Amino acid sequence: MDRIPILKLGDALLVTIQVDMHDRLAAALEEDLTERIAATGAKGVLIDISSLGIVDSFIGRMLDTVAAVSRMLGADTVVVGMRPAVAITLVELGLELKGVRTALNVERGMALIGRWLEDGDGDERDGPAAGDANDGDGG
Amino acid sequence: MATGDDAARGTAVLAIGSSDDVVRVRQEVRSRAVAAGLGIVDQTKIVTAASELARNTLIHGGGGTVRVESVSQGVRRGVRLTFEDHGPGIPDINQALKDGFTTGGGLGLGLGGSKRLSNEFEIDSAPGRGTRVTIARWK
Amino acid sequence: MAQNGSGGLAQTVAEHQDEILSEWLALQVSGGALQSGRIKEAELRTQCRTFLDLLRDGLEQGGTDPEAPAFGRAKEVLAEVSRSRGMQGFTPTETAAFVFSLKRPMFNALNRTIEAAAGEGGGAVRAASAATARDTWDVTLLLDQLGLHAMEVFMKAREDIIARQGREISELSTPVVKLWDGVLALPLIGTLDSERTQVVMESLLQTIVDQSAEIAIIDITGVPTVDTLTAQHLLKTVAAARLMGADCIVSGIRPQIAQTMVHLGVELDVTSKATLADAFRVALTRIGRAVVKAPRAEAAAPVAARRR
Ligand SMILES: Nc1ncnc2c1ncn2[C@@H]1O[C@H](COP(=O)(O)OP(=O)(O)OP(=O)(O)O)[C@@H](O)[C@H]1O
Ligand SMILES: [Mg+2]
Question: Is this structure's pTM higher than 0.90?
Fold first, then answer.
């Protein structure tokens, strides 16, 4: 079975989801990411979903789980590039991914991870408060 | 509701027996939604609902089929989907429709969510007989 | 001559098609169909001929039930004619006349079958009369149904125009403006119904992507009332923006609105500020900018300095 590649960039892991994922592929990504975080000691995970035409409850739950698991392993996750129509649909579906941090695009996501790395060793679960507009619990 | 021209535009029946089939259902529904002239948000809503219901058919219903119809009513156009399985059925439909109710360790959002994402929603299920869910989204 | 239901009807139409067509056209022309100048005679003739051909096919294959698939093509052409008339600004009466003015030529054609039977003696005349009476009734029902179909399509076309104009107006009336690099504002004015909120929401979210904006200020100073549904829409917009990686600030919630919302049990679980200016200040801080005083002579505009 094919898998989605995970790139390592400094202290961060980078995943770009480019295919219409079937459920097994999504489940495999969740496992692979967990393994790689543990193996590399990465402090940040960036998941780019700008190519995804939909996010349903399965993929949504995968994103939630990855964020929760990586937090336990000392890494923060940011999901970037969600399209407007996908976001509107996801809210209507009832999934708000409250535990997942988000950014507009890869560049902004990497900047966010950069700031987390600057501010601490990743054990600071809430991340920096000021200037970090997109915390799930921010505002 | 459905008029004579439904027949002219044709229907497709797809089998749902694996998670690859769920992907195929999404693709078929997407192309029908585009052909019916649905906007990007409406497309995303019906494809997401289709993904949820196809997965329910696969996981809870033990596999089944979906009938994908391009429909019209006067000058309105849309897509109608009928998911059908001969699985265990749903004993309490109202309960199953509630957000958060699941018997399979899911999020319990699929059924209620796909109702919110559709313009028409109909469910027919009885223990031992199986389940049929029909949804439609209009332009 | 066999006069069995629509078999006979189809045959009658086929035999008298040319007369029916020219009578039908003449009736429409004398009824003023061409007067508005919206349609040329040649076009009308083509529409009539096409429809009559398909109607005859329908009668041959599908009897007189307008729901039969055999009438599918005829109905499509009829829908096309009605739709284009709806778009071109024809009145409902003018549009309905297309189908209804076909009745008389059809009745005349049916009556001719009685005249034809006259040469064959009294029994034949009686049989032909009975068949004609039945056929006349069937044609009436069929054309009435088709007429209703035509009106439905016509009305829908008009509704679509109205809906489109409504959307265009609400797009026009809700401009998303850029306040600063990465900061958008959406000044809402007027009543927010579901339809409009939807349009607003989509255009805001799309602008967020287009301009890579991190913060959007939704200003509702100009909104007279906020009901539960509107509040929910606002909340959904905020939630969707967050999923995309942007933050929303709601500003300009008037005291009465705040009160109503609390009474309704809707609390806007978002950052909110009294005025657009307050919200803008918060937005600037969040993107790491601050407004500082500068000597007037040097700069007319406030200077924004980087935080670090
Ligand atoms: N086709 C079906 N056959 C039998 N039971 C079904 C079917 N579809 C849904 N159900 C029942 O309804 C419940 C709710 O379905 P719903 O899709 O809302 O949640 P879920 O599938 O459990 O989780 P998810 O949020 O991942 O979709 C299911 O747990 C299951 O018990
Ligand atoms: Mg489900």
Answer: no
